[in-house]
Amino acid sequence: MECAKCFLESSADHALILEDDVEFPPDLCELLLGALDARDSWDILRLSTVNTGRKYSFQRFTTERSLAIALTREKGSGAYMINRQAAEWLVGRMVPMCLPYNLAFNLEYLASLRSVFVSPVPINQCTNFPTQIQLGLRSYRIAGWRRLPVFLFRAWIEASRFSRGPFGCCGRAATDKILMMCRNAR
Predict the structure, then answer these.
(1) Which has the closest alpha carbon to 46: 77, 11, 10, 15?
(2) Measured torsion, CA atoms of residues 72, 74, 75, 77, in degrees rounded to the nearest 10
(3) What's the first-to-final CA gap in the chain, in angstroms?
(4) Which pLDDT score, from 0 to 100, does residue 179 have?
(5) Whole-angstrom distance, CA of residue 157 vs CA of residue 166
(6) What are the pLDDT digits (tens) for 116-168?
(7) pLDDT at position 169, please?
(8) Within 10 A of 112 (CB to CB), how many other CB atoms are there?
(9) What angle do CA 172, 177, 178 make, to 5 degrees?
(10) Do 68 and 55 touch, CB atoms closer than 8 A?
(11) H helix runs in the chain, sequence order
(12) Helix (H) or strand (E) holding 68
């Protein structure tokens, strides 16, 4: 969130946001420049994932890389680029946080933002580098029976990707309703 806030305070049109434990490809500069040339096709450009779902290319922008969509939920927010519209959504709609960041980040379609991948996925976030993000993760695990609402919520969210959105609405209203529901569930 702090990166998006700083970005909005700048005059830049795009921001590259990275976690502390990612690994860069040799063609990083070329692919970022190519992606910026194709900026009219995306609001969020996903440069990493922790899943292995198939990506469907729709626009080549370097000799090795294409813009692509994924028809499955792809987790991970280790490396991505955003434009100002996406940053405004992150700062304006996601605060205060009521969902884990990677879940909230995957709701961009409810705000009518265009999120695409670079294929093949260029940045590796499944490294063995030391990281602050995963420290003490086990202490946050919940009991198996308490995970059922989480699984139901994720199934509902996933199903909404292929409809007009939850509650029969779309865009900002859907995002607001989901976040309000999460905040009220506390």
Answers:
(1) 77
(2) -150
(3) 21
(4) 59
(5) 8
(6) 999 999 998 877 766 555 555 566 666 777 778 877 877 877 777 666 443 34
(7) 44
(8) 15
(9) 100
(10) yes
(11) 2-9, 28-37, 84-93, 101-105, 148-160, 172-184
(12) strand 66-70
- In angstroms, the CA 47 to CA 114 distance is 14
**Tokens standing for 21?**
């434990």
State pLDDT tens for residues 39-49.
999 999 999 98
CA distance 65 to 81: 15
Enumerate domains of the chain plus CATH numbers: 2-127 (3.90.550.10)
**What's the pTM value of the predicted model, to 2 decimals?**
0.77
d(CA 17, CA 35): 14
Q: What single letter denotes the amino acid at residue 10? A: S
